[in-house]
Write a structure and sequence with these properties.
380 residues, Aspartate Aminotransferase, domain 2, binds pyridoxal-5'-phosphate, single chain, globular
C-alpha cells in the first residue's frame, strides 16, 4: 500500500468500520423479553402505547401513531392532508426516493426543487416559483440530521395556504431554535430503520398537531376500521402496524436517546477537528439556530483533488472503511425525469457527497484512522 508512514504506523482495523450500527444494552433486552413473554392478549399493545406516548413527549408532538416504516408515516400523512390525483407536492430533488414515491402512489405529482448548500433541503429562494393552483403540500426533508429552512418554508406555506409535511426520518434529535424536528409543522414522519439514530430494525412514527388527522390516520392504518362497531370498515384503508415487540425496543432506545445524540455529536467533533480544515470540502453543515444530531457525518468534495468521489470510496473500502454515497437526485431516475430539470446544487452535492462511518459505537481511535486515510488520499 502507498498510504505513507502515518497510516501504516497507526492502529489498523481488523474488520470493516461500518457507516452505522446500533447500541444495544441490557434495558433493550429486558423490554423486548418482557414484550415477548407477556405482550399478548390484553397486553398486546402495551409497549405501543408507551412508546407513542414517550415519543410524543420527546418531540413535543400532540399526537403520535406508530407505523411499520417512515415511508408509511409519510404516506398516511399525505392521505390525511387530502392529497390525491392531480395534486402537486413539493419535494427536494436530493432525498430518498420514497419521498416522491408516496406522492406518486396517491396519483399526485412530486415537484422536484433544488436544495441549497446550507440546509441540504429545499432552496427556499426558488420555492415560490414552483407553487401552482395544484400545490397542496411542501415536504421539507431534514437530510442526514440537518434541518430544512423551516422558517422560510412556513412563511411561504402560510402565504399560499399549503400544508407542511416534515420528513424527519433522518432528523430525530435535531433542534431548530430549541424546538425538536417534527414539532415544526403540521405533521412529520420519523424512521426507525436499522441505520437510524433510534433503530429498531424497521419502524416509523407519524406525529401531528391535528386531532382530525390522527383520528382518520388511526382508522385508515387499520383498513378504515370503525371504532364504534366491531369489524365494520368505514372506508378502504391500509394495513400499517408496528408490533408490540418492536415498540418495546423503541421505548428502551428512546430512553437512551440523550446518550445516542451525545455520541453522535462527539463523533462529529472528532471528525471536524481532523477534517474541518481541509479546503475544498464541505463538512456537515450546522447553521445558526440549529443543533444537529449529526445522524451522518458527511463530506462533499467541491474541488478537484485528483481523485473522484467514487475512487475515494473504493480506496477507503480497501482500507476497511465503509462509506455511503449520497442519494441520487430523484430527477435522475428515468421514471421521474419527465419535467425539464435544472437543479445544479442537488446534482453537485449528490455526485460528490460521501457519508462517513457515523455509528454510535465508533471510537476516537477509529475516527483518527478514518480521518488520516482521507487526508492521505485527498492531500497526497
Ligand atoms: C430521508 C428519508 N425519508 C424517508 C425514509 C423512509 O423511512 P423507512 O425506511 O423507515 O421507510 C428514509 C429512510 O430510509 C429516509 O432516509
Amino acid at each position: 500500500m502507498t498510504y505513507g508512514k502515518i497510516v501504516y504506523k497507526m492502529w489498523q482495523p481488523s474488520k470493516m468500520i461500518l457507516t452505522a450500527g446500533p447500541k444495544i444494552g441490557k434495558n433493550d433486552i429486558r423490554y423486548v423479553s418482557d414484550a415477548v413473554k407477556n405482550g399478548w392478549n390484553l397486553h398486546h399493545s402495551d409497549y405501543i402505547y408507551k412508546f407513542e406516548e414517550a415519543f410524543a413527549k420527546y418531540v413535543n408532538a400532540k399526537y403520535t401513531l406508530s407505523m411499520p416504516h417512515g415511508t408509511s408515516a409519510l404516506h398516511i400523512a399525505l392521505v390525511c392532508m387530502g392529497v390525491g390525483r392531480g395534486d402537486e407536492v413539493i419535494v427536494p430533488d436530493l432525498t430518498y426516493v420514497t419521498c416522491a414515491n408516496v406522492v406518486h402512489q396517491l396519483g399526485a405529482i412530486p415537484i422536484l426543487v433544488d436544495i441549497d448548500r446550507e440546509t441540504w433541503s429545499i432552496d427556499t429562494s426558488r420555492l415560490e416559483k414552483y407553487i401552482t393552483k395544484k400545490t397542496k403540500v411542501i415536504m421539507p426533508v431534514h437530510l442526514y440530521g440537518n434541518i430544512a429552512d423551516m422558517d422560510g418554508i412556513a412563511q411561504i406555506a402560510k402565504k399560499h395556504h399549503l400544508h407542511i409535511l416534515e420528513d424527519a426520518c433522518e432528523g430525530l434529535g435535531s433542534t431548530l431554535h430549541g424546538k425538536q424536528v417534527g414539532s415544526l409543522s403540521d405533521a412529520a414522519a420519523f424512521s426507525f430503520q436499522g441505520a437510524k439514530l433510534l433503530s429498531i430494525g424497521e419502524g416509523g412514527m407519524l406525529v401531528t398537531k391535528h386531532k382530525g388527522w390522527i383520528e382518520r390516520a388511526r382508522s385508515i392504518v387499520d383498513n378504515g376500521i370503525s371504532f364504534t362497531r366491531q369489524f365494520w370498515h368505514n372506508e378502504i384503508g391500509y394495513m400499517y402496524a408496528m408490533s408490540n415487540i418492536q415498540a418495546a425496543l423503541g421505548l428502551s432506545r428512546l430512553e437512551d436517546i440523550d446518550d445516542l445524540i451525545a455520541r453522535k455529536r462527539r463523533i462529529n467533533r472528532w471528525y471536524r477537528e481532523r477534517l474541518g480544515g481541509i479546503k475544498g470540502i464541505q463538512f456537515s453543515p450546522e447553521r445558526k439556530g440549529v443543533v444537529s444530531s449529526f445522524w451522518m457525518n458527511t463530506i462533499v468534495l467541491d474541488t478537484d483533488f485528483g481523485i473522484t468521489r467514487d475512487e475515494l470510496r473504493i480506496k477507503m473500502s480497501e482500507m476497511k472503511i465503509d462509506t455511503r454515497p449520497f442519494f441520487f437526485p430523484i430527477s435522475e431516475f428515468c421514471f421521474y425525469n419527465k419535467q425539464p430539470i435544472n437543479n445544479p446544487v442537488s446534482y453537485h452535492v449528490s455526485h460528490n457527497g460521501i457519508n462517513l462511518p457515523s455509528g454510535v459505537m465508533l471510537t476516537e481511535r477509529m475516527v483518527d484512522y478514518i480521518a488520516s486515510v482521507i487526508r492521505k488520499l485527498l492531500l497526497k
